[in-house]
Structure formats: C-alpha cells, structure tokens
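Checklist before submission:
- one chain only
- standard amino acids only
- sequence pasted in full

Submission:
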Amino acid sequence: MTMNSVGRPTAPETAAAAPIGTFTGNRGLAVEEPLLFEIGRHDVTGVDLDEPGRFAPRLGAHMRRAPIDLPGLSEPEAVRHYVRLSQKNYAIDSGLYPLGSCTMKHNPRLNEKMARLPGIADIHPLQPLSTVSGAVELMAELGRWLLEMTGMRAVALSPKAGAHGELCGMMAIKAAVEARGEARPIVLVPESAHGTNPATAALLGFRVVPVPARADGTVDPEAVRKLLSPQVAAIMLTNPNTCGLFERDVVEIARAVHEAGAYFYCDGANFNAIVGKAKVGELGVDAMHINLHKTFSTPHGGGGPGAGPVVLSHRLAAFAPLPFVRMEAEGPRLVESEAELAEGETPFGRMVAFHGQMGMYVRALAYMLSHGADGLKQASEDAVLNANYVRAGLRDLFSQPFGDRPCMHEVLFDDSFLDGTGVTTLDFAKAMIDEGYHPMTMYFPLVVHGAMLIEPTESESKASLDLFVATLRDLAMRARAGETDRFKAAPRYAPRRRLDETRAARTPKLKWEPPAPFEQAAE
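Returned file contents:
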C-alpha cells in the first residue's frame, strides 16, 4: 500500500478499498448512533427520585392511565447522544457552506458573547419601559445603521424573518393603496423571484402576475410596462436576483412602476452583495426586508431565530407597524400604542405581540460596529469576488445558463454539462456529500433546468475555494469519464445512505414505534 507524507493511504487506494465491517457498526469516531428510544431503558430513570407520598390528584379524566414510556438514560449517556448527533451536523464551522441565495456566512463568536450580556440575554418583554432604555437605544442605533445603508426613511424592526418582513412590506403597500381610496388587486412578480414573494402577495389577497425574464436572466423594463395598469399595486423584485445577477435596469423599472401609481418592493435576501455599494432608496425601492440572520451574520438555519427588519421609503414611512422606535429630542422612544402616535403616523397595525428578536438585534449591531462602514463594504466586495473566483475556476467544465458573464455574490450553473453522462443534478449533489461538502442549492431558481447555485460568501479563503473548485472539477471529469456508479451509489460515507426522497416526503414516519416481534414480522 502506498502511503503519503503523513502516513495515510493515497487517495486512489483509499477510494478503491472496500469498507471493513465492525462489530458495533461504528467506523472509528463515526459512531452509529441509535435513537434514544432504542438505547434507553423504559423501566429506569437517569435521576434518583423518591417515591411520592400520598396525594390527591387533580387531573381528573386527564390522569395518565399508562406508563409514560420515556427512555431512561444516565447523564453521560444523554450527553454522549446529543454530542454525537451534533458531530453529524454540517455547519459553517466545519466546512464551506455553498448554499446559493441563503448566505450561510461566518458568525463571529464576539456576537454571541454580546448577546449573552446581562441585561440583554435576560430581558423580558413585559418589563417596564423605564428599565429597558438601553435596549431601546440599541434598537434605535441598529435602525440608524440600516437606514444609512439603504437610504430609506423608516424602519420596522419587529418582523421575525425574511418572509415575515415581506409580509410587513406588502402590508404597508396595501395600507398605502387603501389610504388613497384605490383598488389595486394585482402584484407583479418576476419568474426568478423567491417563492415566498408570490406566496406573500397571494396571502394578502393580491392576484399574482408573473413577469418573464430576458434571455440574460434579468427583467426587461418594457415587459414590466406592458403589464402595468391602474390595477397594479406593486412589483416584487429581487436585486441582485436569484440568478446571481444585478438587475441593471432597476432604476428604469422603478420609474415605470411609480409612474403607474404602484409601489416597488425589493426582496432583500441578497443584500449581502451590495451593502456599502448601492443604496436601494436611491434605486427607487419603496420597501425592502433585510435578513439580519443572513446579511449581518447572526445564526441562520434550524428554523430560527431570525429577524427580518423592513426599511420603508418616504412614500410608505407613515405606515410602519407598531411598535416602532421614534427619535425625539430627549432620545429614542418606543411607541407601542395608537394613543402615542404623532401627527402623520398611520401604522397599518402590528406584526407581533412584542417588538422582535433582541438577540438578533445585538448580534447584527455587534457585526456592524466591529466591521464599520468600510468593513461592511469590503465584505460585499469579497463575497462578489469569491463567487466570481468559483465561476472562473469552473466555467470550462460547468455550463452557465446566461453566458460567461460576471455574477454578483452567487454563481449559477445548470446541468447541461452532465448531458449524456447518466448523472443527474441530484446524483452530483450526493457525490459532494462523500467529498465532505454540503451540496450547493439545487434546482433553484426554477427558470433554469437543473440549476446549481453556489454562494461561497466573503469569509472563505483562497485555499478553501481552491479545494472546493478542485473537488467539483474532479467530480465533473469523473462524470464525463463514465464513472456513473460513483454518483448513483452516493453518498457512501454519510451516516445514512440515499433515501427514496419522494416516498419519504409522501409517507413520513413522524413517530417512533417499537419494532414488531420477530415472529410477527415474519408472518
């Protein structure tokens, strides 16, 4: 066996070697981790509890009649179980996370330390305002940074996520239309939009009319003009769009929309590409949500927490929802009810019971303050540079649907380079797992067949990008060389092999059931 300089088998021999079976099913530190219900004992508990004395239960008909049937484990067993599960997660802390249109960027630990400071981590929404003046000041400062970066007039901090922010912006637009005494039931949505855009419009009762994309992946202002009418309330445009391209005609589109009496909503999910480079207010945008959990580094994924503040232009500022922070002579003030409104303030209502995610505010502001204006601009520039570096490294093997042209913070490929290989986009993604990478976004945006959308973010070094590019090049060449089995059988080295994903989605098993006795299973 040939060994390399660190005493490990060389790659070809390692790849060709058959896996050796083990008694435990484990492979070194890769532990085959069963479910808690499979390793726990149902007749014991991990803590010592005295038998309760005589008491009169007050649950009545709700009294449990069967054993609780929860697995009992010792403290070390429980800790080991969850540590092992955590080691199976893929995260930005373990490798490059190339999901396009998701901005899985590095989260500095400084942000986490700030969010855990006393007086912030333990703040309660029902505290008297007199005890949270520092928190209100922090929200005001965060809002000031967001307004400065976007060139907008007002900000609503309360939305808890991107889609929630979209809803907030479109509710402000709907309120503005109604305040003018008009009925405008239509919203224009480009084909390359995020799926939440048409969903948000439909949720609010609008009829969605799609706007086709040009051959170069962008929106044609003439196509927008043809669809504009007194019936149109707004357009929902993502810029940079989901094809990784900047909408170069955005100013002309905004002008046409405003001339028709409609409003311009911008999906800000891709704001990471233009922070410090362009102010959306100067582009003609009326409302845009900002994902603090994407653009400004706060944790992303796992269902939350998130925060999706919305910035509003002078056309919509008066409709910002309650509660909001108002700057007054004596300092920032949290306006919580209609009784506190000043002249000209006509909020459409409120989005949440309280204000929002304080931890997200702290993390985002810590990121902004530590980077400064110049650092935020550099982050955008580096994100775009890294995406174009990946594009340049793959363009001779991968196929680009809109030609070999520079992209923004994410680069889009399609699957035509796999034609005739017998390898699908999904097969390629599964093979990336064996190489130690989370796959890029697959099959999105929908305007491109077999889309592969890669967003490396600004935090990746040249070395990590070089290895990533070399890995994808190797996979592409192996697919073209006819090594189909390598892809169809992938992933081989993940904790679980490939699922029948269609069947799993249609008939999910949501509850663990004890296995049937052997004799019963054999019948």
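Reviewer check: The mean pLDDT is 90.
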